[in-house]
Amino acid sequence: RKEVEQDPGPFNVPEGATVAFNCTYSNSASQSFFWYRQDCRKEPKLLMSVYSSGNEDGRFTAQLNRASQYISLLIRDSKLSDSATYLCVVEYGNKLVFGAGTILRVKS
Amino acid sequence: NAGVTQTPKFQVLKTGQSMTLQCAQDMNHNSMYWYRQDPGMGLRLIYYSASEGTTDKGEVPNGYNVSRLNKREFSLRLESAAPSQTSVYFCASGDRGQFGYTFGSGTRLTVV
Fold it and tell me: Can you tell me the distance from the alpha carbon of B44 to that of B58, in angstroms, rounded to the nearest whole number?
């Protein structure tokens, strides 16, 4: 079983749609959680950290359920510029473990 | 503010050649990392250094060595390159907690 699992997609959505990504992790000792965004052939960039209480940054909302070892990302009012691969990332010890990523394609 | 700087950006090697990928960060982070990314496989950790003077193996360390030269610099060496090492290599730095990690722009390595 992979340590961090994501639906690879692709998710093809029209502009303005709401889309949700899910992620599960296997190590209950995981300490910190993140969503990263990666554009084609570029480096991953931090989108947002994920807290147990849930957190929101503009159109983006992240949730963490430690009991179920589940992380989610909700994107509202999708823009063309949101097209990218979204990486679920879990930290334990001194290591970051990445999911394989979920591809989002937003179309006009 | 440069963040994390990797060199070179592109490299083509012949099988059996050696090379060193360089990484430097100017954010005073304690931890530094080397990842490789292959199509459809996500990022896999090669080696990491939790602090100056320490290094540890990650998920895919075979065929690689690392040196944490000082707090700023963390290099990755391929002693005898193989076609299976064709990949995109990313260096990252950060500290534990909610602030995430910063990545360099990557090195695209092809071994022929």
Answer: 8
3-state secondary structure of B7: strand
Residues on chain A touching B96 (C-beta within 8 angstroms): 31-32, 91, 94
Mean pLDDT (chain B, rounded): 94
pLDDT of B35 > 90? The answer is: yes
**Confidence check: pLDDT of B98 > 80:** no
Neighbours of A50 (CB within 10 A): 24
CB pairs under 8 A between A and B: 54
Q: Which two tokens stand for residue B20?
A: 């060193």
Contact partners, residue A93, CB within 8 Å, separation at least 6: none
- A89 near A31, Cβ under 8 Å? no
**Per-run averaged pLDDT (10 residues), chain A, 108 residues:** 88 97 91 93 93 90 94 97 96 87 96
Question: Are A21 and A72 within 8 A, CB to CB?
Answer: yes
Residues in A touching B104 (Cβ below 8 Å): 43
Please give the Cα distance from B91 to B60 (Å, whole number). 15
